[in-house]
Specification:
mainly beta, 9-stranded mixed beta sheet, 2 domains, 6% helix, 3 helices, Immunoglobulin-like, globular
């Protein structure tokens, strides 16, 4: 329904914030930093050298969550990587049902793995970083994490027909009436009230999300533009504040017209059902608006075609 304030930090700076944002920054459900402890050494032994370790891996492992077929592997190191090619060559991804994939560096410390086509559902994927083989990095142990890919959830939102069709493992399961961004608020040449068209990935969810008008500088309750609402069944699909969530009233517009500040509003039953099946990395394709989704807005990496994506690798093809 509405979008608001502070967002998760984007992988690179976003040019324009969207209207629908949460009051508080959602805490990413990352697993704890995976740093291997050096083995006990004799008092007289020289200290082992550690030049590079992993600070974080997203998403979590197979025992903590199942992920969608669009999910990326996001690896953050504990310091700037000087030789990206050497490090990238030590990163391995092995799937039960393999598909082609490639790494893309988005900063000096962060690299992201994306596949050419979506992962096959209902399988395991093993990531391994053999950093002990990096020259001079003798104090580091190799790190691995196994991911569990769940059901293929692909949702198609048509902002012109005001519907969201949800396909599970390739079969249409539900058609939900929706209301998308109405448009009409231009900032820096961008209509921030429009829902972005493109391939989004679900990034997280909250049973109740607080949404306010503070994103546009309105914090005084006496201001007629002020609002602060508790929105149920909110599934985040971008860093700029877009969600699929239950409409806070205004049910007469669902399936008929676009009236939100940029989010995808759904019926109470539809929103609750979607929340229940949502996994991080599920695909949400939105069509019908003039505002295009930036590839670095959240986990929107599928906005780049395969040739563009591979250009971010440090390894020569």
């Amino acid at each position: 329904m509405n979008r608001f304030p502070r967002m998760l930090p984007a992988l690179v700076a976003l040019v324009t914030m969207t209207a629908c944002a949460a009051e508080s920054v959602p805490v990413p459900h990352h697993a704890p930093a995976m740093q291997a402890a050096a083995g006990a050494a004799a008092i007289t032994a020289p200290a082992k050298k550690i030049k590079l370790e992993i600070a974080d891996i997203t998403p979590m492992g197979e025992k903590s969550e199942k992920v969608g077929v669009g999910f990326p592997i996001i690896v953050t190191f504990d310091r700037d990587v000087k030789d990206k090619a050497a490090v990238e060559a030590l990163l391995e991804v092995q799937a039960d049902r393999p598909v082609e994939g490639a790494w893309r560096w988005v900063s000096k410390r962060k690299v992201i793995y994306r596949t050419k086509t979506y992962w096959k559902p209902h399988q395991k994927v093993l990531f391994t970083a053999r950093l002990s083989q990096l020259p001079g990095n003798t104090g580091t142990k190799d790190v691995s994490r196994r991911f569990a890919v769940g059901t293929s959830n692909v949702s198609v939102v048509d902002t012109r027909k005001h519907t969201m069709k949800v396909y599970r493992d390739g079969k249409i399961t539900k058609k939900i009436p929706i209301s998308a961004g109405r448009g009409g608020l231009n900032r820096n040449g961008v209509d921030v009230y429009l829902t972005t068209s493109g391939v989004h990935l679900t990034m997280g969810k909250k049973a109740v999300e607080t949404m306010t008008s503070s994103w546009m500088g309105v914090t005084d309750p006496k201001d007629p533009r002020y609002y602060k609402e508790e929105i149920p069944w909110a599934v985040r699909i971008s860093d700029s504040g877009e969600y699929v969530h239950q409409s806070a009233g205004y049910y007469q517009y669902l399936g008929r017209s676009n009236q939100s500040h940029g989010c995808v509003r759904a019926t109470p039953a539809g929103a609750r059902w979607f929340y229940g099946i949502a996994q991080r990395g599920d695909v949400v394709k939105i069509t019908g608006t003039k505002r295009k989704l930036a590839w670095n807005n959240g986990w929107s990496y599928w906005q780049l075609n395969w040739t563009q994506w591979k250009k971010g690798s440090a390894l020569k093809s």
